[in-house]
Known about the structure:
Blueprint: H1 3-15, H2 26-42, E1 49-53, H3 59-66, E2 70-75, H4 78-86, E3 92-95, E4 108-113, H5 116-119, H6 123-136, E5 137-149, H7 152-159, H8 165-177, E6 191-192, H9 194-203, E7 207-213, H10 219-224, H11 231-244, E8 257-263
Parallel strand pairs: 1-2, 1-4, 2-3, 4-5, 5-6
Antiparallel strand pairs: 5-8, 7-8
Helix pairs in contact: 2-11
Amino acid sequence: MDQHxxxxxEHYTLRYREDAxxxxxxxxxxxxxxxxELLRELLPPAPARVLDVGGGPGVYARTLVAxxxxxxxxxxxxxxxxxxAGGQPPVDAVVADARALPEEDDHYDVTLLLGPLYxxxxxxxxxxALGEAVRVTRPGGRVVAAAISRFAGPxxxxxxxxxxxxxxxxxxxxxxxxxxxxxxNFTPAYFHRTEELRDECRxxxxxxxxxxxxxxxxxxxxxxxxxxxxxxxxxxxxxxxxRVYTSEPALIAASAHLxxxxxxxxxxxxxxxxx
Length: 275
């Protein structure tokens, strides 16, 4: 395990509870709701074979198991794997790196990458992870990959009254390289532009790539209203707009998280794994 991977494991083992994140605030609840809705739309009827790469403690995997899908979860963090395996319903889960999956070629109908891409700072590592997802997914199957928008952090700080002068400088730096400041409370991370995520999926061999904005353009309004009398009304409106504008090109990057989906080519058009 390289130092970057060790830093991620340490963060999620000692400093952060991923199992509580998606219940914690309006942005996270929008992310969870829209991810589940899109997975219902994108996945084939149960029982599909689904590989959840970087699936954390199994929040989405358990939903899919409950819906009748045959799910295996892999994650770099052993604590997450234990949580996934020990939850209800339990999930088949193992420790593994997204860049070297211990799985057979063409075995899954759908492969999810709902966390690894933004934890992989180097472009070649992201392409390895996407290439591995393509490798283990059958021709005609689907890969679904999440990323963090290049603009998510600074916009979040502004919506919640935390935009300091230092944060403005960080926003300027992110415009050029997309790399999260390691002094922040998050792990080393990479934040995508929409077109960049689409291009990486295509380079990895996926076709028919579509990028969705998960939280929609009004998630910041839901954050700003979170403790006020209109919190529920504003949240409901933000969710409605997230659905309406899910793949509207002019608004995708306004979401905090991006969700790309593409198909593994059938027949001779399939590319070999990257790297």
